[in-house]
Amino acid sequence: MAIIKRWRALIILSLLLIGLVAINPERGQTAVSLTLGSAKDMFLLLPPILVLVGLIDQWIDKSLLIKYMGDDAKFTGVLVALLLGGLAAGPMYIAFPIAITLLKKGANIRYIVFFLGVWTTAKLPIVLFEVSAFGWKYTLIHVLVGLFFFYFVGVFFEKHFDRETLLKEDITNLAE
């Protein structure tokens, strides 16, 4: 039963894909093809990212991280999170192991949430695409609203969650 609980998302996805292939073989084949392509991309990206996260864990001293992203970091924490998230490349699932590592090292929850928000909203490749597709005005409004939003969501998370609980949840979810 524990195996089914642990793999329920994969089981449900597989059943849905099988059902789609049975109902509409052409669309089902397309869906299976897209799913397998995405899984392949993910499995090719994750190992180097996990190595990078391990190196970050070893190379970055906890006291240094606390100095720049800890509870007393103020504007420096925002700037570091902005640089980390803005210069990043790759899909969002790459950001989560990095965020957990930063959290374990002592980074403030506010800056972790802001980092994740910057990763989704203000990554350099996304900003450049938006400028070329929508213009500077739209991009500036979108990025600034996103940055303010994620900063204040980070403040909210900081007030309502503590690091130990989040890390305990992380370990609990991995164990299931």
Can you offer a commentary on this structure?
- It comes from Halolactibacillus alkaliphilus.
- It holds the Pfam family ArsP_1.
- It is a multi-pass membrane protein.
- Keywords: Cell membrane, Membrane, Transmembrane, Transmembrane helix.
- With 176 residues, the protein is mainly alpha-helical.
- It has helices at residues 2-6, 8-23, 25-59, 62-69, 75-86, 95-105, 109-121, 124-134, 136-160, 163-175.
- The longest helix has 35 residues, at 25-59.
Distance between the termini: 11 Å
Q: What order do the SSEs take from the amino end to the carboxyl end, as H and E? A: HHHHHHHHHH
Number of helices: 10
Query: Structural class of the helices, strands and pairings?
Result: mainly alpha
Low-confidence stretches: none
Residues in helices, as a percent range:
over 70%
Global morphology = globular
Beta fraction of the residues?
under 5%
Protein name: Permease
InterPro entries: DUF318 (IPR005524)
Subcellular location: Cell membrane
Membrane topology: Multi-pass membrane protein
List its traits.
176 residues, mainly alpha, 2 domains, 10 helices, globular
Topology, please?
Blueprint: H1 2-6, H2 8-23, H3 25-59, H4 62-69, H5 75-86, H6 95-105, H7 109-121, H8 124-134, H9 136-160, H10 163-175
Brief characterization of the structure:
The protein has 176 residues and is mainly alpha-helical. Helix content is 85%, strand content 0%.
